[in-house]
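Predict the 3D structure for this chain.
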Amino acid sequence: MPWVGVSPALAKVRHQILLLTLVLVLLGLGGLSLLWTGLIFAIGAPIALVAAACGWPLISRSAAAWAYAERDDDLFIRRGVAFRRIEVVPYGRMQLVDVTAGPLQRLHGIATVHLHTASPDTTARIHGLPPAEAKRLRDRLTARGEAQAAGL
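Done. Predicted structure below.
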């Protein structure tokens, strides 16, 4: 079963979100230090910087762990580094295949494929696909889902 990885742009998007979050936290700490004491910033800023520095390589590893594999009857989705998770979604259980892309994703040329199934617990998503691949996968999964459902 050949695994298909996602775009490296997924890590770039998540790195930018991390940096934006860091800036907002530092601005919030700066505002709090103006209201109360500068000690809040002196303690909070290094903690925020260390957390961001630790999160940076984890984001890269996490993004690289995302992959999917198409089989005859189902789709496998692999993710996670420390806690590896593999989801199996049978084509016949798919009800809707959705492609979404927020502003930051569109800026970096990636999209997310979201698989809706009969089970409300299913959170099958494939992040970081190029838009053309996301559309191709959506069309292919929809066709396979219809073929599998027709056989029931």
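The helical segments are 9-35, 39-65, 103-108, 131-150.
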